[in-house]
Write a structure and sequence with these properties.
The chain is mainly alpha-helical and 294 residues long. The chain contains 14 helices and no strands.
Length: 294
């Protein structure tokens, strides 16, 4: 078509229902992320530990394979709470890496390009805008946390001895609840950081630093004050405290004061507090840019 024939035309396509309109942001954000081949490959790499865990479950329930591998009759391959705790903790770190990649692209680009007033001048409010952006991370992180965890549970239930699934039925709500707690922490911290830092590289560094640097300060506090409360600054540690207590699994060795761990209630309070603080920072950053139509 010639250039002079191009003119403005009103949109005549289907209109998304108002209650689901925020998912338009989710759809386009996901398409932007997966348009990168590197991100698609990285997403698949994060699932490799899940495949290894599935192979572990298969071997632990197959006597013929154990005999072929000369493991003997006393197999040390046990699929229990400790196994699922290790799997979920490993996938929690994978989720952190994914968040550092995808999170800075969600809000920072809208702020740096000045497009946020355009979004909020449409039939979208701040809550719907945040929900649309958060749904991106929730969907991605679900694919590497609770969904693989439930699939591994189903695999063990089908291969294990009769009654295993019923005896360990408490694993299912634990996997879902703890995974969504971690997803909320990662999502809200990433969105808040992305809203306050416009440059992607800096936002990625800040997001990752919030999970890596505070534990060092916490251990310094422990060493000086001879206490273990400095670990409340270590968010992955707090997740481990909650997960191991709910799955009745042993904690890993965390240096001095290993026998004294932060109470589970305190871990819940700190992680929920981090979510609330991130939400307040995000709301404060977006409030001044909301456009009210008369």
């Amino acid at each position: 078509m010639a250039v002079y024939k191009r003119a403005y035309r009103a949109y005549n396509g289907p209109i998304t229902a108002e209650r689901w309109r925020f998912l338009v942001l989710t759809r386009y954000s996901l398409s932007q992320l997966f348009s990168s081949r590197a991100f698609s490959w990285f997403m698949m790499i994060t699932l490799l530990p899940v495949l290894i865990s599935a192979a572990f479950i298969y071997v632990s329930n197959n006597a013929a394979v154990q005999a072929a591998l000369r493991m003997g009759t006393q197999s040390i391959l046990n699929v229990d709470g400790s196994f699922f705790a290790k799997v979920l903790l490993g996938q929690a770190w994978m989720g952190l890496f994914l968040t550092c990649w995808a999170g800075p692209l969600l809000v920072a680009s809208d702020l740096s390009n000045g497009s946020l007033p355009l979004y909020l001048s449409r039939p979208l409010n701040r809550a719907e805008y945040v929900a649309g952006k958060a749904a991106v991370l929730v969907g991605i992180l679900s694919c590497v946390t609770w969904i693989p965890g439930l699939l591994l549970f189903a695999l063990q239930s089908s291969l294990g001895s009769g009654g295993w699934a019923w005896a360990h039925k408490s694993f299912v709500p634990t996997i879902v609840l703890v995974s969504f707690l971690w997803i909320a922490v990662l999502t809200l911290i990433s969105l808040a950081t992305s809203a306050w830092v416009k440059w992607r590289i800096v936002a990625t560094a800040v997001t990752f630093g919030l999970f890596v640097l505070p534990p060092g300060f916490g251990e310094a506090i422990n060493g000086v004050l001879r206490t273990y409360w400095g670990r409340v600054l270590n968010l992955p540690y707090l997740l481990e405290v909650i997960l191991t207590n709910m799955l009745d699994a042993p904690m890993q060795n965390h240096g001095p004061f290993t026998n004294e761990q932060v109470p589970q209630l305190a871990a819940w309070i700190v992680l929920i507090g981090v979510c609330m603080a991130s939400l307040l920072l995000l709301n404060k950053r977006l409030r001044a840019r909301e456009v009210v139509r008369g």
